[in-house]
Write a structure and sequence with these properties.
The protein has 220 residues and is of the alpha+beta class. The protein has a six-stranded antiparallel β-barrel with strand order 1-2-3-7-6-4. α1 runs antiparallel to α2.
């Protein structure tokens, strides 16, 4: 499966397609609900086209739908958040996805062999918590094979699944889900602004207000 497995949600004016593969590695033999074979695991770059404004933006995204294939041609998507209303996920699964990102997402970024392995492990862990009730890579809907699946992917994913639940820090990301009824759904994460950033934004808005009031006085 080139580009993993995903499905979509939000405005009929939005079209999405996969453009390139990002960090990740090939699995050799791996099973997901729709396929068994040499599956590429990692994040993808997607193009999001707004047909109303005729603008296109690109995002790095992980697949959160191991039941469908991605597409390199535009399909209609809807846009929502990572919640039970905009996705088919239970609150428990959403909690696991959030913890996986808080624990591991930062390590998937940047051009390095480690980032490739981390991105592949995060993708496989996402499929595991979404499609299987038990994080066992050797059984269930998502399954690897000893001696046949990429060994570094198996090891990294096993370690991630064993440790991500210990995360107890803040939520570091805001999420957008691009959802389709016929193609993979994509999850895009953006860092939550630091408190200092909010303070600077508020200070800037306050300064703009002061300037506006001064201009009004001059006009009068």
């Amino acid at each position: 499966i080139v580009g993993a497995v995903i499905s979509g949600s939000a405005f009929a004016a939005i079209e999405v397609k996969e453009t390139t593969l990002g960090n990740g590695i090939s699995s050799n033999k791996l099973t997901v609900p729709v396929y068994t074979g040499n599956i590429w695991s990692g994040f993808q770059t997607i193009a999001v086209h707004d047909t109303v404004t005729n603008t296109t933006k690109s995002f790095d995204a992980f697949c959160v739908d191991p039941y469908q294939f991605s597409s390199s041609t535009y399909s209609t998507y809807t846009v929502g958040g990572l919640n039970t209303t905009d996705t088919s996920f239970s609150s428990g699964v959403i909690g696991k996805i959030t913890k996986l990102y808080n624990y591991a997402y930062a390590g998937t970024l940047g051009p390095s062999a480690a980032a490739d392995t981390n991105a592949a492990a995060l993708q496989l862990a996402l499929w595991e918590v979404i499609a299987d009730s038990s994080p066992d890579l050797l059984s269930g809907n998502v399954k690897g094979y000893t001696g046949q699946t990429n060994a570094s992917l198996m090891t990294a994913t096993t370690n991630l699944l064993a440790n991500y639940g210990s995360y107890s820090g803040p939520n570091n990301y805001n999420f957008t889900v691009y959802k389709s009824t016929t193609k993979q759904d994509f999850l895009v994460a953006r860092p939550v602004p630091e408190p200092e950033t909010y303070a600077m934004m508020l200070a800037g808005l306050g300064l703009m207000g002061v300037v506006a009031r001064k201009r009004n006085r001059i006009n009068f």
